[in-house]
Amino acid sequence: MANYTATNNTQNSTIRSFRAVVFAALIALLFNLTSCNPKADAISPETETIVASSLRAVASSDSSNTLKGVASFPIGAAINPQLLASNALYKSALVKNYNSISTENCAKMNRLQPKAGQFNWTDTDALVNFARQNNMKVHGHTLIWHVAVPTWVTNFQGDSLAWEKLMKTHIQTVVGHYKGSIKSWDVVNEAFEADGSLRKSIWYQHLGADYIARCFQYAHEADPQALLFYNDNNSVYQTKKSDAVYAMLKNLKQRNIPINGVGLQMHITVNTSESILTNVIRQYASTGLLIHISELDIRMNYSLSTTFVLTDAVKNAHASKYKAIAKIYKGVVAKAQQFGITNWNLGDSDSWLLTESKSEDHPLLFDENYNRKLSFYGFMQGLTE
């Protein structure tokens, strides 16, 4: 019986390997047909649909044909708990393709502590419970930020000691409540301006420049096992900011402040320079910290045009950029530092970018009906190469 089982295992392994090879070849075929054609704008929708349908047929027969199935590191999505509870397609896309959840908005200060000392755990608890049931990890976003501050905090009257107690109490109450359940946190979010100076936020004004280090210390005290991240945006566009963040990260490490990683939000466009992306990711990776591409979405309509037209060429550029992000991350970040890549929500209609700019865009991997887009396959190819 042992020999028979061993033979079966070998045969199954061979079949799985064969499927993986066939699947990778089909992805390459799709990508080459749609992105390497010098007349990409002229690609017929019928051809694209036929090839994509062939890939979906392979996907339905092979459980590895999902983002989490082909990736060598966690693949995450920022999740809206209301959509998760009410939309079956949203839930299905999440469960099939992702093994990590970020709390998109529900764990921000104004949601968790809308009134002083009164915590509302409902939505974040729901995400944590869902993640536990589906064998997913949860990344908490975010403990301290200059946005999403409740009114009672902006109106708070007190000296620096009172402000310190306010900040410490919020951090430790939240991290303590989710100790062992939320195993990583964005402790401080977007503390720098574009020119590299510290943002004169409400926290900076009342607590001084070193409030950032103390936030990490307080979070670590509440859950010594949690992985703690600094998270920021636009570093790929703003050299002074990226240099300032890099210097702060090195300083925190030198002082033995308990920081484990850095999040690069990665709200970029189809025109974002891949060489710049590579350089910034390499710069942060040189700190030795865990690297999290934490809020990935890619604008198609980078000029925010009111007359934007979604062409095949734009779709191809979008797929190419998603592929490039995955390849750069795999190629630049050491395996031990690869915390993962997180998409900032699932379907195009769920994206914050549509509300933020009021212009048409299609920045994510799934369309408004949670069908896989060409970009999904571009991203998957980047993960598999």
Automatic annotation (TrEMBL):
Q: Pfam families annotated for this entry?
A: Glyco_hydro_10
What the entry lists under InterPro entries is as follows: GH, GH10, GH10_AS, GH10_dom
* Catalytic function, reaction form: Endohydrolysis of (1->4)-beta-D-xylosidic linkages in xylans
Indicate yes or no for the key word Kinase.
no
Which Enzyme Commission numbers does its entry carry? 3.2.1.8
What UniProt keywords are attached to this protein's entry?
A: Carbohydrate metabolism, Glycosidase, Hydrolase, Polysaccharide degradation, Signal, Xylan degradation
Q: One MF term from GO for this chain?
A: endo-1,4-beta-xylanase activity
Active site (record annotation) = 295 (nucleophile)
Q: Give the GO biological process terms.
A: xylan catabolic process
Residue ranges occupied by any GH10 domain in the UniProt entry: 61-382
The family annotation for this protein states: Belongs to the glycosyl hydrolase 10 (cellulase F) family.
In Swiss-Prot or TrEMBL terms, this protein is called Beta-xylanase
Species whose genome carries this gene: Spirosoma pollinicola
